[in-house]
TrEMBL record:
Its cofactor is Zn(2+). One of its GO terms (cellular component) is cytosol. This is D-phenylhydantoinase. Keywords: Hydrolase, Metal-binding. GO terms for molecular function: hydrolase activity, acting on carbon-nitrogen (but not peptide) bonds, in cyclic amides; metal ion binding. Residues 49-430 form the Amidohydrolase-related domain. Pfam families: Amidohydro_1. Belongs to the metallo-dependent hydrolases superfamily. Hydantoinase/dihydropyrimidinase family.
Length: 454
């Protein structure tokens, strides 16, 4: 044995138990009471939780909007992940236009990440209009280990509902999972034009420009299409209680619909848009109401939503400041580093989630949905030794200065936390310890997802 974590509480999606964890090379070797491991380095973790490394299943590194790239690249983005107890991230391979093939886009993205990533990573394949018809290309990316597709119902790269239906049928045949950004394009476009005509273009109008009805309608439409196709579907960044209710209703009828939400939709409201820093809170879909926060927590606890991911998309303070209106301010916020401690403090300590549910929504569920389980999201013998030592007593007030994003701000500034990651291991290697990053660029590996056997 190489490493023995002694005296902690092991938390998995199934249970909490007092047990030691033995690590051999890159793998978990044993979990149990009073393990002996002659020759191993022993770390006393009495009073701490031992969690599987968290997975942030929705991130965007060096993502372009026009001429701008997000501040965090593959190196800084995955370094801050390590500092937050996140050992796997899933980003996107997005063609520059419908003329670029899926495999070209995928190879470019893999090339960008190579030698840069500090934690392991997977990719979702963005499918542009027309590309849903090309079974050969879809099959090729699945063969390379990209087992989830991503489409949009709005933005320039939007697919029509008919095209999303076609992709769902292709994905069903391939065993892949379609993930969808849901906002109804007609509703969003009409609102935007109405606000512009009325001269209401300040970033403060962002939430009004993308109303809850747009998300709920798009989610309902996509659920209907998935039902018709007999395919599972995954709704990214659900921001509305109504969207969560639509997912819950479909699931209660036996449909395989999955939902993801983000810490900002659970913890912040649209009141941020009336403040002086409204641009910093501008993301799509926008922040909603306290009633939405509450319903999202309820549906996360009840299981209708299975995943919390961050949509980490870190346009910097300076990039945001250049925006003059809600429609030209770069959209997106940083989040990966605060994912686990926020969900612990505001989810577990506030009584919404149990510790096993925390591990479910941050590790086991995304690992299962994206073909990484039990290599990731688990502490079973044979799983990758991706481990977080979590100190439930450590008190932290979040400030941008103490975090590692190049964005230069956090939307959770001033949030008081109790409980924080103390150390992070990636495949047995200590990459973060008590405030210090110890990893290096290039140690993160691409994780091919596996299609569930049917
Ligand atoms: O505003 C956001 N969320 N930017 C990232 C792209 C997306 O829609 O997820
Ligand atoms: Zn060894
Ligand atoms: Zn999106
Ligand atoms: Zn996103």
């Amino acid at each position: 044995m190489d490493l023995l974590l002694k005296g902690g509480w092991v938390v998995t999606a199934a249970r909490v138990e007092q047990a030691d964890v033995a690590i051999e090379g890159e793998k978990i070797a044993a979990v149990g009471p009073d393990l002996a491991a002659p020759g191993a380095v022993v770390r006393d973790v009495t009073g701490k939780y031992i969690l599987p490394g968290a997975i942030d299943a929705h991130v965007h590194y060096q993502m372009p909007i026009g001429d701008l790239l997000t501040a965090d690249d593959w190196f800084t983005g995955t370094r801050l992940a390590a500092c937050g107890g996140v050992t796997t991230v899933i980003d996107y391979a997005e063609p520059a236009s419908p003329a670029e093939s899926l495999t070209e886009a995928l190879n470019k993205r893999l090339e960008e990440a190579r030698d840069q990533a500090c934690v392991d990573f997977g990719l979702h394949q963005v499918v542009m209009p027309g590309q849903e018809e090309d079974e050969g290309e879809l099959r090729a990316v699945v063969a390379k280990g990209v087992t989830s597709f991503k489409v949009f119902t709005t933005y320039a790269q939007r697919l029509s509902l008919a095209a999303i239906g076609r992709l769902l049928r292709q994905a069903r045949r391939l065993g892949a999972l379609v993930t969808v950004h849901c906002e109804d394009h007609e509703i969003v476009t009409a609102k935007r034009e109405e606000l512009i005509a009325a001269g209401r273009t300040d970033p403060a109008y962002h939430a009004l420009s993308r109303p809850a009805t747009a998300e709920v309608k798009a989610i309902r439409d996509v659920i209907t299409l998935a039902g018709e196709a007999g395919a599972p579907v995954y709704i990214v960044h659900v921001s509305t209680g109504g969207g969560a209710e639509a997912i819950a209703a479909a699931r209660s009828k036996g449909q395989q619909v999955y939902g993801e939400t983000c810490p900002h939709y659970l913890l912040l409201t649209e009141s941020q848009y009336t403040g002086p820093a409204s641009r910093l809170f501008l993301m799509c879909p926008p922040l909603r109401t306290a009633a939405d926060n509450d319903l999202l927590w309820r549906h996360l606890a009840g299981g209708a939503l299975q995943v919390v991911a961050t949509d980490h998309c870190s346009y910097s303070r300076e990039q945001k400041a250049a925006g003059t209106a809600f429609y030209d301010t770069p959209s997106g916020v940083p989040g990966t580093e605060t994912l686990l401690p926020l969900l612990y403090s505001y989810g577990v300590r506030n009584g919404w989630l149990t510790l096993p549910q925390l591990v479910g929504v941050l590790a086991a569920n995304p690992a299962r949905l994206f073909g990484l389980y039990p290599r990731k999201g688990s502490l079973k013998p044979g799983s990758d030794a991706d481990v977080v030592i979590f100190d439930p007593r450590r008190q932290v007030t979040l400030t941008a200065a103490s975090l590692h994003s190049a964005a230069g701000y956090t939307v959770f500034e001033g949030f008081n936390l109790q409980g924080y990651p103390e150390a992070t291991y990636l495949r047995g290697r200590l990459i973060y310890d008590k405030g210090t990053f110890l990893g290096r660029a290039g140690q993160g590996q691409f994780l091919p997802g596996r299609i569930a056997a049917t």
